[in-house]
Design brief:
Elements: H1 2-17, H2 37-102, H3 112-120, H4 126-130, H5 138-152, H6 177-232, H7 238-275
Helix pairs in contact: 1-2, 2-5, 2-6, 3-6
Length: about 280
């Protein structure tokens, strides 16, 4: 999950960097020539030419720097994708090894039959199962698992990576408990967990958008009501103007009265607590 979040962050960053007209903050610097007034008075045309050349050089340099940043982000993405693939492949091997140990009917050395059967047959929706794994095909997964086996350097390690054949037979089938458990575990770990996270993020973003919309709508409605109320006033009519002023004064007097009353109440309470020694 952590690796997938990191990958999403880098992908968002790359998309922003490749957006037309966008300049990364680290590349968005300014450089200005500062000629003296005497030089400007003597040869303003040459100074302006130098200014133009500096601006062109700055833009070109910004483009070169941004290209290097994009290249670095792409390398980061490839590195995270590789880490995800390794994590998925190792998890599949660990899951099937554990399930094989718990199944007394499965012969020793046939733990790989579990995931090979699932991936080679129609037992699972393969695109769905591998959609978040960064594996484009099951053969890429088999290649990486074979690499792990070669690193362990056992005598029984095949020379080439596994590939399914038409006459391939498996020690399990779609009714085997190990296959059923493998499907449930892999679906929960590799698919459902990430889909749930994406739904939560989308829900959070939608909630923020709704709150922002409601706040903007409320502010707009209040502004419209105020504007309509002001528009209804006839400021050329002395009576209307007097009513507006009187209402404002009355509101101010009421506010001042409430403030003074609360202040007196506070002073009285403070005095009474002092009187009893608190």
């Amino acid at each position: 999950m952590k690796l997938k979040k990191t990958l999403n962050t880098f992908n968002d960053r790359l998309q922003l960097l490749q957006k037309p007209g966008y300049v990364a903050s680290s590349c968005n610097f300014k450089f200005e020539l500062n000629p003296t007034d005497r030089l400007l008075a003597d040869d303003e045309a040459k100074v302006e030419k130098l200014h133009d050349e500096v601006n062109i050089a700055r833009v070109l340099f910004q483009g070169q720097m941004q290209a290097q940043i994009i290249a670095l982000v792409k390398l980061e993405i490839a590195s995270v994708q590789n880490a995800i693939r390794k994590s998925v492949a190792k998890s599949i091997v660990d899951i099937t090894t554990t399930l094989a140990l718990l199944d007394p009917t499965l012969e020793e050395g046939h733990n790989s039959d579990i995931f090979q059967f699932v991936l080679d047959t129609d037992t699972a929706d393969l695109p769905s199962l591998l959609q978040h794994s960064e594996f484009q095909t099951k053969h890429k997964l088999y290649d990486l698992i074979h690499t792990f086996a070669q690193e362990q350097a056992t005598a029984t390690t095949p020379t080439d990576a596994y590939r399914p054949t038409e006459d391939r037979t498996y020690a399990v089938d779609d009714t085997s408990p190990t296959v059923i458990l493998f499907l449930q575990i892999s679906q929960a770990v590799f698919v459902t967990s990430w889909d749930t996270y994406l739904k939560q993020i989308a829900l959070l973003e939608n909630t923020k958008k709704v709150k922002a919309y409601l706040s903007a709508s409320t502010a707009e409605k209040a502004t419209q009501d105020t504007a309509m109320a002001l528009a209804d006033l006839d400021l050329n009519d002395p009576v209307t103007v007097k009513n507006v002023i009187d209402k404002s004064v009355a509101c101010w007097d009421m506010t001042k009265y409430e403030f003074l009353r609360s202040k007196r109440n506070y002073s009285s309470t403070r005095f009474s607590t002092r009187a009893i020694g608190l």
